């Protein structure tokens, strides 16, 4: 008598959709059922976030899980000029053409959470939202994002220096010391992929807007978001990110705050999959 073989991972579908402005958006999909869409944050895309695929495989028994490359990264194209609305259209194309227009759960990592909230504010049809440590600086826990951050990133790219845009992100947004950034720029394996997505650094800056200004969130920010929102942060993350999650949850009338196991701006696929499964089946 032979022992049963372990379950095989669900099959992955890799394909593309065309956004409203003609840009090709590449995605991977797993499973079938009600859609769950995963949106990456700054600098990230499918090839750099294997935890997204691991999360999808845990959910594919019940859901259609979709992870796409945001414009300008990985397998997706880009069409200038950039506007935040173009990324809302990208998400809408994914929801319509991959998700079949069904009620979807949308999850965003970091500034991908800001994008998800912005898209819901703009009327993209989203049934429920989840964000993990969406970007906000609402007090003096850390320096705010410089007021000219987006302009400096765009100027660097326009001058043919996308690496400088990445360095600005690592310094002003992430908070890495200059010597660490200088060392990273000399790394022949790590730096070229970062430099390649340098033109998209300002995209996340525009999605974040003034949420990292060091001031309380504006009263009209996300004031039209009326779907359930699950706001997560790692229990052992940096204090300002936990403070940001609390501020966002307090700001949104339909939000639920959920500290989960995790630190340093991340959590595990097992934790994330369980939280998304509960949200998609029971609501926040």
UniProtKB/TrEMBL annotation:
Membrane spanning residue stretches: none
Pfam families, alphabetically? Abhydrolase_6
Taxonomic superkingdom = Bacteria
Q: Please give the InterPro entries that the UniProt record associates with this protein.
A: AB_hydrolase, AB_hydrolase_1, AB_hydrolase_fold
In the UniProt record, does the keyword Repeat occur?
A: no
Query: Which Gene3D superfamilies is this protein grouped with?
Result: alpha/beta hydrolase (3.40.50.1820)
The answer to whether the entry has keyword Hydrolase is yes
Q: Which UniProt keywords apply?
A: Hydrolase
Q: Where is the AB hydrolase-1 domain?
A: 56-275
Molecular function (GO) terms for this protein are: hydrolase activity
What is the protein's name according to its record? Alpha/beta hydrolase fold protein
Species source reads Beutenbergia cavernae (strain ATCC BAA-8 / DSM 12333 / CCUG 43141 / JCM 11478 / NBRC 16432 / NCIMB 13614 / HKI 0122)
């Amino acid at each position: 008598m032979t022992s049963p073989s372990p379950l095989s991972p669900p099959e992955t579908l890799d394909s593309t959709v065309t956004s409203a402005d003609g840009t090709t958006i590449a995605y991977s999909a797993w499973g079938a059922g009600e859609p769950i869409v995963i949106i990456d944050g700054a600098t990230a895309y499918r090839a750099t976030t294997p935890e997204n695929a691991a999360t999808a495989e845990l959910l594919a028994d019940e859901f259609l899980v979709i992870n796409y490359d945001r414009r300008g990264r990985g397998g997706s194209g880009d069409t200038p000029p950039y506007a935040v609305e173009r990324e809302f259209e990208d998400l809408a194309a994914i929801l319509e053409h991959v998700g079949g227009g069904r009620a979807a759960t949308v999850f965003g990592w970091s500034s991908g959470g800001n994008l998800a909230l912005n898209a819901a504010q703009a009327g993209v049809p989203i049934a429920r939202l989840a964000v993990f440590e969406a970007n906000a600086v609402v007090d003096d826990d850390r320096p705010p994002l410089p007021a000219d951050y987006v302009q400096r990133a765009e100027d660097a790219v326009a001058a043919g220096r996308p690496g400088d845009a990445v360095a600005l992100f690592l310094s002003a947004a992430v908070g890495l010391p200059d010597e660490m950034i200088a060392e990273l720029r000399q790394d022949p394996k790590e730096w070229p992929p970062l430099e390649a997505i340098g033109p998209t650094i300002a995209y996340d800056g525009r999605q974040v807007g003034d949420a990292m200004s060091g001031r309380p969130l504006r009263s009209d920010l996300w004031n039209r978001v009326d779907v359930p929102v699950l706001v997560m942060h790692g229990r052992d993350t940096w204090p300002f990110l936990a403070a940001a999650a609390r501020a966002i949850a307090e700001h949104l009338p339909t939000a639920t705050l959920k500290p989960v196991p995790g630190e340093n701006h991340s959590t595990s696929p097992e934790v994330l999959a369980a939280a998304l499964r509960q949200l998609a089946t029971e609501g926040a």
